[in-house]
Amino acid sequence: MIIKLKIIKKFSLFSLLIFLILTLTGCNRTSVEQDGSKKLSSYKFKINDFKKMDEILAKQEYNYATDIYKYYIAVIVYDSKNATVNEYEIDNKTITNINIPKNKYLILSFPANRTIEYTWDIKNDISNGILNFDSKSWITPSTKSIEKDVTGTNYDRQNFYFSHLKEGTQKLIMRYEHKKGLVNDYFESIININIK
């Protein structure tokens, strides 16, 4: 009986040590492939006029996270009246790799709460000739499938439009930060766009 207790204590101590090591080293960046477990949903829709993309995107349904260190982004690939939407979970200080076919338009749609003056920005130079940043916009999606009139909630989204220039990998450092202060309070994630 005493031997069993000693073995259990050693096992518990060993398990605790492993847990602490994993917790302390968990601050490093991790990589999530496009087909990994962080992909949430995928669907397609038709659009006849690309100029109405924001209007159409505002009618789509999106997933929203309740964790402040996690966001669900929508990656929209557009080509000749067809659009494909894939949603991914991104975490603070992670790397997400997303594969995009060549000769397509790309829209990245992020949840953003402008009522608390937070906005998404690209924090690195992207002038390597792979993607061209065209514009960004704000949309307010329909909230028919989510809770309405809850104090402090906001389901706006910020869309970033890109056109393809050539094959390769474009690194995007995306930061969600306060517009007027709180410089140390931000969410940052790296998205590698692989154009093939």
Largest sheet, described in full? Answer: 6 strands, antiparallel
CATH architectural label:
Sandwich
What is the β-strand count?
11
Mean pLDDT: 80
What is the overall shape? Answer: globular
Tally of individual domains: 1
Strand composition percent? 35-45%
Q: What's the order of the H and E elements?
A: HEEHEEEEEEEEE
What is the number of helices?
A: 2
CATH class: Mainly Beta
The Cα radius of gyration reads: 20 Å
Q: What structural class should be given to the helix and strand makeup?
A: mainly beta
Q: What strand line-up does the widest sheet have? A: 2-4-3-6-9-8
CATH topology description? Immunoglobulin-like
Rounded to the nearest angstrom, the distance between the terminal CA atoms is: 63 Å
Low-confidence blocks of residues: 13-37
- Measured as a percent range, the helix fraction is 10-25%
Descriptive tags:
196 residues; mainly beta
Structural account:
It is a single chain. The chain has 196 residues and is mainly beta. The chain has one domain (31-195): Immunoglobulin-like (Sandwich). 15% of the residues lie in helices and 44% in strands. It has two helices and eleven strands; from the N terminus they run H-E-E-H-E-E-E-E-E-E-E-E-E. The protein has a six-stranded antiparallel sheet with strand order 2-4-3-6-9-8. The protein has a five-stranded mixed sheet with strand order 1-5-11-10-7, with no helix packed on it. Strand 10 and strand 11 (186-195) form a beta hairpin. The longest helix has 24 residues, at 2-25. The model is unreliable at 13-37 (pLDDT under 50).
